[in-house]
Amino acid sequence: MTEPLSRDDVAHVAKLARLRLTEDELVRYTEQLGKILVHAQDLSSLDLHGVAPTAHPFGLVNVVRNDEVRASLDPAPVLAQAPDVEDGRFAVPRIVGEAP
Amino acid sequence: MKSALEIAAAVRGGQSALVAVEESLTAIRARNEELNVFLYVDEDGARAAAALVDERVRRGEDPGLLAGVPIALKDNLCTTGIPTTCSSKILEGWKPPYNATVVDRLVAQGAISMGKTNLDEFAMGSSTENSAFGPTRNPLDPARVPGGSSGGSAAAVASNMTPISLGSDTGGSIRQPAALCGLVGVKPTYGLVSRYGLIAFASSLDQIGPFANSVTDAALLLEAIAGYDPMDSTSLPESAPSLMAHVNDGVAGKRIGLVRELVDGADEDVVRAVNKAVETLKDAGATIVEISIPELHLGLSAYYIIAPAEASSNLARFDGVRFGNRVDGEDVTAMMEATRTAGFGAEVKRRIMLGTYALSTGYFDAYYGQALKVRTRMIEAFATAYQQVDMIIGATTPSVAFEFGSKTNDPMAMYLNDVFTIPTNLAGEAAISVPFGTGEANLPIGVQLLGPGRSEARLFAAARVLEIADGRA
């Protein structure tokens, strides 16, 4: 069986998932994820034409509530747990100005 | 330690709730260092809560179903002002600004939280070896794992630190540790228990449920926490089912399916226990039907695509912006990468990447799309089986508790531990693991009873028959 995913695939996926991997980790995860995906390949060989996918066990329908004002979390204790806060808002490092 | 039912009765009868709380604290002090069960012990909070329960009794108010009963909470349940870590460095030191609905319900029913228990990081694992704060040891044999991911909550009850505890079950994380620690563990029907305030792993599979020494205590705890919650959009719109009233209903006239796929591959001692359980249920008046559900063999593969896919999405929120730890970086992307790289452990990273891959362009249909269709097949296969039988019996785990390190180098070997428990989560149905007999090294074996959605009462009744036959009650 062909290798289900390459080192480059793992590096790409890590980037998408906002994770940095060392060289050692890249090698190890390529091997481990490959083994899991080989096991999962018995799924792709199944003929499931016409079978509807189930994303949710009981056919979830959208739940709506009346558009009424009600109490929610007090911002102060929420912000008190944040890594960085400025003027009652979550603060983060520079977002714009990154080189494309 | 007394049962939850006995403690609640004593407290209603005027015994101070502090009696059981102090007993629990003594048991925690005696073995927590050795076993690493609790990550946080809320000594002051427990005593204060006991005083409030006593006050309710004094005023003649109903102190609740669980009046004065000490309980342990898996540390992925949010507790206001009490550290909630998911056994991850990324949340170390974080204190939630609100309680999970189940926590509020426990308080309303008079239960007393003793603190937060260890788990595999973000509930990903089957041994508690993936905790950032060290593994929990099995109280019955400290050289062995207690199972996982709710290993701390299982060990709390197995070591008599608390008579009951709460865990969460995404692919077997309550039933597997219950089996390995000799306890009753329940994965309730999807939607029966609110997940508001349960830190999400795989939202279409996660369910909160009880651990207890007995079927009756498990039923009592589930009754106390079940029922509709407007804060959880997946909550079933109905009140808590009546379970205590049915635990002694027996199995006379019930049809029970012995499913080959839920026994195949298990160790000899486990197979023997299941067969003995089948004989016991037959003697109690049930009709046993041998059936085969070949689709169950696909469960593991489907689960290890679906659960990581959902996890990769759910865990995107841990990015150093709103809660938990942050590692600085020169821009926001660098900060997020540094935070997540330092904060997540190896198994969590593995599953995030697996899920990200399965959802990525070019692979979505082959993996995630196929897995969702397999899930449909599994639901249909169970539905067909339940036209023939009222419930299904099988093993909970392939073996008794295993030794530390024996499966840590091979993720697939660890995942195979969940092969019998996963199908219930994929189908959104109910299952219970009940201790029945012992195997290798005199360690307990769990027998699993599975039923369709909302079949808890009938599963509890059957489990109770086995519990009595096993000399446990």
TrEMBL record, chain A:
It holds the Pfam family GatC. GO terms for biological process: glutaminyl-tRNAGln biosynthesis via transamidation; regulation of translational fidelity. This is Unannotated protein. It comes from freshwater metagenome.
UniProtKB/TrEMBL annotation, chain B:
Its EC number is 6.3.5.7. InterPro entries: Amidase, Amidase_CS, Amidase_dom, AS_sf, GatA. Pfam families: Amidase (PF01425). Residues 20-459 form the Amidase domain. It catalyses: L-glutamyl-tRNA(Gln) + L-glutamine + ATP + H2O = L-glutaminyl-tRNA(Gln) + L-glutamate + ADP + phosphate + H(+). Transmembrane segments: none annotated. Keywords: ATP-binding, Ligase, Nucleotide-binding, Protein biosynthesis. GO terms for cellular component: glutamyl-tRNA(Gln) amidotransferase complex; mitochondrion. GO terms for biological process: translation. GO terms for molecular function: ATP binding; glutaminyl-tRNA synthase (glutamine-hydrolyzing) activity. PANTHER family: GLUTAMYL-TRNA(GLN) AMIDOTRANSFERASE SUBUNIT A (PTHR11895:SF151), TRANSAMIDASE (PTHR11895). NCBIfam families: gatA. Belongs to the amidase family. GatA subfamily. This is glutaminyl-tRNA synthase (glutamine-hydrolyzing).
